[in-house]
Amino acid sequence: MATIDSVSSETDAHAHDSHGHDHPSWLAHHFDTPEQQFDSGKLGIWLFLVTEVLFFSGMFCAYAIFRMLRPEVFVGCSEFLNTKLGAINTGVLLFSSLTMAWAVRCSQTEEHKKLVALIATTLSCAMVFLGVKSIEYSHKWGMGLLPPGSYFYNAANEHPTQEQLVELHGFSDSMAYFLTHSLYFLCAPFALIAAGVLVWLIIAKVTGKDFQYACAKPLLVVALSFFGGVGLGTILESGGEHHGEGHVAMAGDHGHGEEHTEGDHDDHGHEGGDHSHEGEVAGAEGTVGVVESPLGEDYAAVELLAENETNTGLKDLVAAEKAQQSLAKGQVVADPAASDLGISTLDGEVNTPKQAGVFFGIYYCMTGVHAIHILAGIGVLVWLLIRAIRQDFNRQYFGPVDYVGLYWHLVDLIWIYLFPLLYLIR
Length: 426
Fold this sequence. Notes:
By secondary structure, this protein is mostly helical. It has helices at about 1-20, 35-70, 70-75, 85-110, 110-145, 160-170, 175-180, 180-205, 210-240, 300-305, 310-330, 355-390, 400-425. The protein is globular and about 100 Å long. Residues about 1-20, about 240-290 and about 330-350 have low confidence and may be disordered.
């Protein structure tokens, strides 16, 4: 019995030694084969990507609901989004997906130098994207295109100074300084990173640390790519779109439906010398102009006939006419439901700062969370770049490159939806 136990123990020890001998360093001990490890990792990344899709779905639902309720707000506010910048970022991300897919293939074929170059190119595209987005954000912040509570855009003064932000809009000195110099704050972290990588490159070269020098060279190019995106965005923004009539109405601005000013009254008079304008409402002093009834001289007769209980159609017509007269004179309707009264929709100025602020709140939420995912992808890609320089990947072990590639494709795919929904559909 003791002999059997001794032989069994020796056999187990030999099997353990042989298993450890056949176990490569890149194969985790709880996996028996490289295929098992790769399939397990692939399942894990797909489950993670499903949670990411669910996360973004909530924001897409909020976008769809608000757009359904206030389509005219999106029409007006989308005029402030520079489609050229959005299109450039779309092209940059599509190209980065190509380089990332190519990098996965190079990791499988053990083309180590090409793998390093392709991962560095993908990183550079990500930095260019963030540089262009920094120009977009800083330009809008300076104009006051902010979420509700902070929105202060004024078409008469699209780029207020720091003193005006403090005096007219009640911002603190520090916040006003940030809004007028936001581009510097957005660029500062990347400038520090570029300076740090440059110092690292010089030290590694002087001290003869070849591996660190090999890591610092592509990372310096990646860090400087951000400022290439800033320069590209500056050129496109300076020669970009002028919003003109598409601006969001502020208090005191003319509404979108206004077709003429007081100076043009004499040129647009009605035939027969009647210069009164139907639906005209006076401005600043609150005096109400002449509001003519669409029924003309027959209104009194119609009102008299509507007193008969059987003439329900005329009663609804008179009620609707009174509601229109009340709204035209600037009177407040106590019950909002009473403003319908036979009218399916009532035209009015809906592009108020509050509603426009909701649009830009959704815009910053969706594009900001996407930018955070870009930053997370940059961090993981830097890790991959260092491992690729170390030549950790081979024909049997390329899972990390494949997993990061799937994540990067999802980030790009989300932007493919964001770009038309926010920038193009009007």
